[in-house]
């Protein structure tokens, strides 16, 4: 019941943020800005997003191989498509990462826990790349951001949110080790100790391969630049004159904020964040800033639809595992 209420609240927050954003705009001006988008460029952006999704699957397969779990590139790509669909389209259901972790365990007869853990490492690569790309982009754009007092305040506000999130994570880890000393936690620890130690072995493998992890993060930079290039193409076709460096700075920063569990799929959070960031630029009107945000959402929605077809057809599962799943409860 609490989970249902939480999901409903998050959807209300996301939808409310989008409605509030649109209510502050001149709808006729926004429609005029949106109508300038060239369909060919929109589909080019979707194509680049699909390529980026496939690259994410290849990265995941690479991370699995580091812990000696053999999964085909095609299987990893198909599961990635399913995950993106549930992250970006299915607002009230479980996240795509949970489904990826669930389904990948059916692609291996051993190391199921380690296979599920690889999803966390995969997400870490994405966040690390976003942080790096946003940092470089913001430093490159420093003159603009420091020239406008109000703009600097807004950017510092975004940085404060990220810092608060990191602090909350550190605090949560500290609290865990404190309450572990209680009798209840000691009993729980006795039950899960073996599983945790297995996960620590996987952590050691990843931590002991810094160069290979570095390659994964570099590859992730290419993935994100691929998606960002698509957004730049479609928005430029609408006559929006923002330089590519701002796309490279603002999008990763907003993606990190959107990954916080405020609303499903970052709904509303991404739209408000992206439009606020691009509104800082003198060459971008408020309506154009909102157009950029809405273009990204549309590309995400359309580009995530193949995941639905893959899921409904059962192509994301091995044939033998598909039969077993008929008798299991899928976490959705």
Task: Please give a structural write-up.
This protein has 332 residues and is an all-alpha fold. It has one domain. 79% of the residues lie in helices and 0% in strands. It is built from 15 helices and no strands. Helix 4 crosses helix 14. It is globular, with a radius of gyration of 21 Å.
Descriptive terms for the model:
mainly alpha, 15 helices, single chain, 79% helix, 332 residues, Flippase-like domain-containing protein, 0% strand
Set down the secondary structure blueprint.
Blueprint: H1 2-23, H2 27-35, H3 39-66, H4 73-88, H5 96-104, H6 112-140, H7 142-147, H8 149-179, H9 183-207, H10 210-236, H11 244-258, H12 269-278, H13 286-304, H14 306-313, H15 319-325
Helix pairs in contact: 2-13, 3-4, 3-6, 3-10, 3-13, 4-5, 4-13, 4-14, 5-6, 6-10, 6-11, 10-11, 11-12, 12-13
| Backbone shape | globular
Mean pLDDT comes to 81
Q: How far apart are the first and last residues' alpha carbons, in Å?
A: 15 Å
What can be said about the biggest beta sheet? none
Contiguous runs where pLDDT drops below 50 for at least 5 residues = 149-156
Assess the beta-strand content as a share of residues. under 5%
Oligomer state equals single chain
Structural class: mainly alpha
Q: From N to C, what is the helix and strand string?
A: HHHHHHHHHHHHHHH
Number of domains: 1
Helix tally? Answer: 15
Radius of gyration: 21 Å
Q: Please bin the fraction of helical residues.
A: over 70%
How many strands? 0
InterPro entries: L-PG_synthase/AglD (IPR022791)
Keywords: Cell membrane, Membrane, Transmembrane, Transmembrane helix
Transmembrane segments: 40-58, 79-103, 115-140, 161-179, 213-234, 246-269
Organism: Sedimentisphaera salicampi
